[in-house]
Design a protein that fits this description.
about 1000 residues; about 15% strand; disordered N terminus; alpha/beta; 47 strands; Rossmann fold
Length: about 1000
């Protein structure tokens, strides 16, 4: 079978999905189908792939890219508060969210956001942007939210928003915008919200294009310089607007002559109408028939004008804000006549008494906000407001809780923060069976008796922080039974006793930070069977208080915070402190107050925390980690050890953490990362090792973290020599791991390279040149493929001949030693071609076997069936005294005949005997034997027999053949050996 001479190559790209470490990845592969077209063409293609398959670097300077796996399927680019003066030069093409706010960017150029067709949100707020070039947003066809707040824009040109056809939210507040060209907003077809507050807009006619956007629901134009708001300047047709914010504008005229706001639900007119003679004209009160919320804070008009304004909304108003209104007390009685009103806000009105205000007639009110006033007593004014569900009395001057609130049986939320309340009595909250949230923080409460909350059977949230409570004295022994959230932070609690929380079986969150707790009794938390979060940070808790008997019943606890205490002084715990917290997922012990001295993390500190997901131990004064400290924490995904003195780390520490995802080692005085090589952190996603003393990183370290996507190495002491050559090349080529601020890494040594950027270091002179090796390897591969192809095409038969010669040699060696000189099975092995079989069977066989009595070995008769052909040939030759080769043109062209000659010649050489007889059936010129080198050599050195031509006597031939078969002279054997040596 000949070799085909063509190779056709078709390359089809395909995207595969594969998994690693519990996460899915996408990989594009190129499948190559070989159909045989030109071998050289395939080799050339392989050479090109090998030479050009380089990848670009993967660093965005001081910016961070968070992939979809971390952000719910979105690709987010963060670069806020990084002192940028220009938009970053490149973004990933598939980014969906960009935040480059809080920087010093002065302008947006036309090429800054090219080809970002997947971008959905763009935040460029809080910069110094004064211009946006034409077409800067033309490619952002998927953008739905654009933030340009707090910049220095002054004009919106007609090309400003080109391309933003799908924008829904536009934030332009806090700029210097005074002009908007007429067609600038015509590009929008889906815009729902526009914020233009705190600009320099004055003329409503310039804003007509905005108001006329059919999809617009919300517009904010507060804090401009608008003095005249008339419907004729806004639109001549109905709008779908639902929210209108006109606050902080010096309105003198407000005139609505057409029904252009049929869907309006909320309007903010706070701090408008500074002129008491301001004009208000709404031709028909039905124009605002759907307005439910009206904000009139800071409005200073006459009482009559105020009433006129309120009459406009009498039919639908639900929520009214009258904060900071000089006439607020005088308006209370009038507002109570609005039948639909349920929410009334009266903050910042300097009210010290509610007598005579008529508030008692607001029976329909459900939410009342009287915060930030000077109230010290309610004087029974609210007794009739039996429908109240929310009462805000914070930031007043109450020294006690008014007894009249006991009449508010429907109350669900009571806020009394920032007052001067000192005592809570047993009947203080009597009849408040529906109260769910009670806020009492920032008062002067010292004692809480166990009867105070006994009537609050439905209370779920209780805020008692920032008081003077020094002990609980079983305050919660009797409940509230349904309490889920209790905040007792910033008090003076020094100890926790066994029965302090016994009645809180439904409690889920207990906040006790910023107290003076130094001891906790056994069983303190025993009844808190539903507790999920326990916050004890910033206290005086010591190792002695961390006993398993303290936390024995908290089997459902998920989060425990112990930061800023006095723990981690003991080198060893007699019994693991958190052994019973079998569900704990988050544990924080960071910032211990003795961190200037040496701290310890006992090897059994985290024992049995088999579900621990996050462990924070920053700034804890740790200098050593035992190899077994995390042996039970196989589910740990986030580990923070920054700010400790961990000069060296053992890889054994991290071996149990097969699922570790984030590792923080900032400012730990690390000098090397060699521990990562054997740490087996296959799934590590984010590694922070900034501000350490790491001078170099080799390729072995990099390759040991196959899942690394974010690497922060800022502030290390890099050495600018060949020890970092591999790291620099990896920085330039990696398209998988993002290296934060790689372009800011500076050399610390040698002195002549100090403050040189690491990426500017020329490493071409370093001994290891992978690119050269790749070139040499690919070149050798191409040349080798070409040579093999040429040899196969032009020297095919010579290769086959050599192969079988080698096999014959092996078989000859195998038979050597096992052969016995006497007792041959056959007198001769006959080697012939099937085309000459007729002559063998009709002439040779009858003469030699029939008349002369020789026993011949014929392959068609004597070969063993099922045995390999080569084995049959070798066995036949070595089982015969002689080998007769019947030569013809067909014989020369036969592969198997050639092998038989090879085996016979090996035997001739090894046994030093005349075992080969050449018999020509036809005349074959010597030049015809040239392609058959071995046969030509044998004929040239040996005497051979020729079959007589037709008509000649054959008796001489048969006699010579008989003599050849019977020759046993030693001299002949020696001559034969000399001939064979010359041939071989």
């Amino acid at each position: 079978m000949g070799l085909a001479k063509t190779v056709r190559v078709s390359m089809v790209p395909r995207m595969d999905v594969f998994q690693g470490g519990g996460r899915s990845y996408k990989r594009i592969t190129m499948h190559i189908t070989v159909h045989i077209w030109d071998t050289a063409l395939l080799c050339f293609a392989l050479y090109i792939v090998a030479c050009v398959s380089r990848v670009s670097g993967f660093t965005y300077g001081v910016c961070e890219l968070h992939d979809p796996e971390q952000c719910g399927g979105r690709t987010k680019f963060f670069c806020y508060k990084r002192s940028l003066e220009h938009v970053p030069p490149k973004f990933p093409h598939n980014v969906t969210d960009i935040d480059i706010s809080h920087n010093k960017i002065k302008g947006i150029k036309s090429e800054d956001f090219q080809n970002l067709t997947h971008l959905e949100t763009l935040n460029i707020s809080y910069n110094s942007i004064s211009y946006v070039e034409k077409g800067a947003f033309r490619d952002l066809i998927s953008l739905t939210e654009l933030g340009l707040s707090s910049n220095r824009l002054s004009i919106i040109t007609k090309e400003f928003f080109q391309g933003l056809t799908n924008l829904k939210v536009l934030l332009l507040d806090k700029n210097n915008i005074s002009t908007t060209e007429n067609s600038s907003f015509s590009v929008f077809h889906h815009l729902e919200c526009v914020k233009l507050s705190e600009n320099k807009l004055t003329d409503m006619k310039l804003m007509q294009p905005i108001f006329r956007i059919q999809t617009l629901n919300e517009i904010h134009i507060a804090s401009n310089n608008i003095s005249n708001f008339q419907s004729i300047n806004v639109s001549n047709s109905s709008l779908r607007l639902q929210i209108l914010n006109l606050a902080h504008n010096p309105l003198n005229i407000f005139r609505i002559s057409e029904d252009i706001f049929p869907y309006l639900q909320a309007i903010n007119l706070s701090y408008c109408f500074s002129n008491r003679n301001s004009e208000w004209e709404v031709l028909n009160t039905s124009f605002f028939r759907n307005v439910k919320r009206l904000e009139m804070a800071g409005v200073n008009v006459s009482l009559e004008r105020f009433k006129v304004i309120l009459q406009t909304f009498n039919n639908s108003l639900v929520a009214l804000t009258l904060s900071a209104v000089p006439l607020a007390k005088s308006l209370i009685s009038y507002t109570c006549h609005i039948p639909t009103l349920t929410t009334l806000t009266l903050r910042n009105n300097n009210i010290s008494s509610l007598k005579g205000t008529g508030l008692e007639r607001c029976c329909q009110i459900r939410t009342l906000d009287l915060g930030h006033n000077r109230l010290a007593d309610l004087e029974n004014v609210l007794a009739s407001l039996t429908n109240l569900t929310f009462l805000q009395l914070g930031y007043n001057k109450f020294s006690y809780i008014p007894s009249m609130i006991q009449n508010l049986s429907m109350l669900e939320n009571l806020d009394l923060v920032f007052n001067q309340i000192e005592k809570l009595g047993c009947s203080t909250f009597k009849n408040l069976n529906n109260l769910k949230t009670l806020r009492l923080y920032r008062n002067r409460i010292k004692v809480v008796k166990d009867c105070v909350f006994q009537d609050l059977i439905n209370l779920k949230k209780l805020y008692l922080g920032s008081n003077y409570i020094s002990f609980l004295d079983r305050a919660f022994q009797n409940g509230p039974a349904k309490l889920e959230y209790l905040k007792l932070s910033s008090n003076s609690l020094a100890s926790l006793k066994t029965n302090d929380f016994r009645g809180l079986k439904s409690l889920r969150t207990l906040i006790l930070y910023d107290n003076k707790i130094n001891s906790i009794d056994d069983g303190t938390f025993d009844k808190l069977i539903s507790l999920k979060v326990l916050n004890l940070h910033f206290n005086k808790i010591t190792d002695e208080s961390l006993r398993p008997t303290v936390f024995s019943e908290l089997s459902n606890l998920l989060e425990l915070t112990l930061q800023n205490n006095h723990i981690l002084k003991a080198e060893y715990f007699q019994t693991p402190p958190f052994y019973n917290l079998t569900s704990l997922k988050v544990l924080s012990v960071l910032s211990q107050r003795h961190h200037n001295n040496q701290s310890f993390l006992p090897y059994n500190f985290l024992q049995n925390l088999r579900h621990l997901h996050t462990f924070w131990a920053q700034n804890a004064g740790l200098k050593y980690l035992h190899d077994d400290v995390f042996k039970d924490n196989t589910q740990l995904a986030e580990l923070a050890l920054s700010g400790n003195d961990l000069t060296t780390l053992s890889p054994n520490v991290f071996l149990p953490l097969r699922k570790l995802y984030k590792l923080y080692l900032k400012e730990t005085r690390l000098k090397t990362l060699d521990f990562l090589v054997q740490a087996n952190l296959q799934d590590l996603y984010y590694l922070q090792i900034s501000n350490n003393q790491i001078s170099s990183i080799n390729e072995t370290i990099i390759m040991s973290l196959p899942g690394l996507r974010l690497l922060d190495m800022q502030g290390n002491t890099f050495t600018c020599d060949c020890s970092n050559a591999q790291f620099i090349k990896w920085l330039e080529k990696s398209n998988f791991t993002q290296v934060l601020a790689a372009n800011t890494y500076e050399c610390n040594s040698p002195p002549n390279f100090k403050e040189t950027q690491l990426l500017n270091l020329d490493v071409s002179s370093c001994s290891e040149n992978n690119e050269f090796y790749y070139y040499i390897s690919s070149t050798c591969l191409v040349l080798l493929t070409l040579i093999i192809s040429l040899i196969y095409n032009f020297l095919h038969w010579q290769i086959v001949y050599g192969y079988y010669l080698f096999l014959a040699f092996l078989y000859d060696n195998k038979k050597k030693g096992s052969h016995k000189p006497l007792g041959f099975q056959y007198d001769a092995f006959v080697s012939y071609n099937k085309h000459d079989e007729l002559w063998v069977t009709s002439e040779l066989l009858p003469k030699l076997e029939g008349e002369q009595g020789w026993r011949l070995c014929l392959h068609h008769r004597d070969f063993q069936p099922g045995k390999p052909i080569v084995d049959n040939i070798v066995d036949g030759i070595y089982s015969s005294r002689k080998t007769i080769c019947i030569l013809s043109q067909h014989y020369l062209e036969s592969e198997w005949c050639s092998r038989e000659v090879q085996v016979a010649s090996f035997r001739l050489f090894d046994e030093k005997k005349d075992v080969l007889i050449l018999l020509f059936l036809e005349d074959i010129p010597v030049y015809r034997l040239s392609p058959y080198y071995r046969m030509r050599g044998l004929v040239k050195k040996r005497t051979y027999l020729s079959w007589p031509k037709a008509g000649q006597d054959t008796r001489v031939f048969w006699e010579k053949l008989r003599v050849a078969l019977g020759a046993r002279r030693g001299s002949e054997e020696e001559n034969s050996l000399s001939d064979v040596q010359n041939v071989l």
